[in-house]
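Might I ask for a little of your time on a matter of protein folding? Here, with my thanks, is the record as I have it:
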Amino acid sequence: MPTNQSEADKHTPELNAPDSLGDDEAFNRLLVEMVADQAPRLFAVVIEHGHREDAAIAAWGMAFEDSAYMITADSNNHYSLSDAENALNYVRTNPNITPHLIWTSPTAANLTDTEN
């Protein structure tokens, strides 16, 4: 059956599949590096009661290159933020409460867990 395909199109070579990025182990290393390079920084908003009398985690967050996301510890409130430092603007305070933005490292936490 005749087609409208040109003679040049009939002889176009197939697109070659891209070269492999290595064996499974090498590819997995590339994935781990990619995730580590692009992972958000984790933070907590901790409220201090009085002057070092007590403290509690009020919220957890993730900071990306151009934004941040925070969720309160009770999961009732979610916030999209332009910057992680803005998280302190959403914590209720009074003269007896001081909010703190605390950066955390999942690697450090994982090392601590595996050492026990």
Summary: Residues 24-38 form the longest helix (15 residues).
